[in-house]
């Protein structure tokens, strides 16, 4: 096993305990969509009330079947736990529908980062909101 893959799997194994409690408040009202990378399968266990969608390295299949229709019909947030490359693609696709990443943190440390400083292989927890959302700071 390559060192990089080992480190990613080790990080994924610990993300459930780290990210789950931090993401749970976004779904307190019982609405919203949660997108997670299948490699972080434990990251969604503490999210009651969320519509949960799994993706892999390629976000485009779930973009067309799940995420895009959701964004067009709802103004509730989309929150996720994915690698930076997936987040980057999603942010570009969502921008066409006037949605923006409002909150982005390195999942393992909680450090807030601007979307343009996301690295491809690091895991991030993030929130996607409509551009017109007044209750969240858009970065």
From TrEMBL:
Annotated keywords: Signal
Claim: Signal is one of the keywords in the record: yes
Signal peptide start and end residues: 1-19
Protein name: Uncharacterized protein
Source organism of the structure: Rhizobium alvei
Classification lineage: Bacteria, Pseudomonadati, Pseudomonadota, Alphaproteobacteria, Hyphomicrobiales
């Amino acid at each position: 096993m390559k060192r990089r893959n080992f480190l990613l799997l080790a990080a994924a194994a610990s993300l459930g305990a780290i990210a789950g409690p931090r993401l749970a408040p976004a779904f307190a009202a019982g609405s919203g969509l949660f997108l997670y990378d299948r490699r972080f399968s434990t990251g969604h266990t503490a999210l009651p009330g969320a519509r949960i969608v799994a993706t892999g390295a390629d976000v485009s299949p779930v973009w067309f079947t799940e995420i895009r229709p959701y964004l067009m019909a709802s103004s509730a947030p989309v929150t996720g736990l994915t690698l930076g490359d997936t987040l980057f693609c999603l942010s570009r696709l969502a921008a066409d529908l006037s949605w923006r990443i409002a909150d982005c943190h390195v999942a393992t440390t909680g450090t807030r980062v601007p979307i343009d400083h996301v690295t491809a292989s690091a895991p991030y927890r993030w929130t996607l909101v409509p551009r017109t959302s007044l209750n969240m700071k858009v970065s």
